[in-house]
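Lecture notes, part 5. Sequence design as translation. It can be helpful to think of inverse folding as translation between two languages: the language of shapes and the language of residues. The source text, in structure tokens, appears below.
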């Protein structure tokens, strides 16, 4: 019977592979990415920009924007405004200028000003701490909401971007066609102790090791347990 796209993957029958052990996978991942640049939101957190509002703003800016650019833009913006009140007080043109380099600066500026006004007016200046409250803001989808909850509030939330989606599906740990479905599967199957950490580890792992094209399987520390689903060419 075909496996529905939202179910945990049955690992393909590969007799040359160890069973996939998620604890061992995370142990190896921590070592593999220790010297790689951190995922943008975790880098911002470690630089002192870890409030829920800063994480919400940073992850919205990061949409379709390279991590290096996101970091530079966020540092510039947070030097001027790092609270909903300060952001709401900015003129849209000034915010567009501060967002220079990020993709879609005009719509992002409009969304940031609108959500800042709403946080001040309707939430007493406090960022909502539920997925529903966060995704009610224009421009905020499940990934941004999860990053805000996970990194900003330290709440268990699985933030699935292209890297988390691609890598967990290659492992054979998930069989899903879209990041939203991967998030649903991981919320059911991944032990909660890894919900925040999975994004922190798999973003650099996916950028530098399990890359979109020709992943570095031959030197990958997870090779012995990874099913390499869909990998047709690798280094
Ligand atoms: S073995 Fe290859 S496909 Fe599997 S995690 Fe490593 S780099 Fe990715």
């Amino acid at each position: 019977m075909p496996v529905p796209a939202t179910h945990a993957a049955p690992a393909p029958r590969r007799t040359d592979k160890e069973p996939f052990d998620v604890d061992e996978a995370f142990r190896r991942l921590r070592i593999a990415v220790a010297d790689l640049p951190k995922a943008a939101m975790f880098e911002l957190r470690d630089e002192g920009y870890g409030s829920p509002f800063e994480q919400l703003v940073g992850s919205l800016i990061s949409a379709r924007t390279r991590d290096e650019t996101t970091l530079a833009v966020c540092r510039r913006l947070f030097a001027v405004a790092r609270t909903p009140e300060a952001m709401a007080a900015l003129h849209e043109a000034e915010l567009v200028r501060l967002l220079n380099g990020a993709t879609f600066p005009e719509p992002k500026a409009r969304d940031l000003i609108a959500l800042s006004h709403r946080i001040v007016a309707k939430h007493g200046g406090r960022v909502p701490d539920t997925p529903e409250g966060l995704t009610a803001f224009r421009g905020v989808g499940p990934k941004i909401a999860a990053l805000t909850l996970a990194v900003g509030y330290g709440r268990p939330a699985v933030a699935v971007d292209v890297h988390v989606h691609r890598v967990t599906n290659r492992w054979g740990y998930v069989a899903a066609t879209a990041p939203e479905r991967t998030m649903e599967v991981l919320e059911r199957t991944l032990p909660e102790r890894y919900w925040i950490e999975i994004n922190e580890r798999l973003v650099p792992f996916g950028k530098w090791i399990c890359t979109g094209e020709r992943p570095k399987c031959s030197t990958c520390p997870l090779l012995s347990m990874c099913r390499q689903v869909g990998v047709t060419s690798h280094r």
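The translated text above is only one of many valid answers, since several sequences can fold into similar shapes. Residues 105-122 form the longest helix (18 residues).
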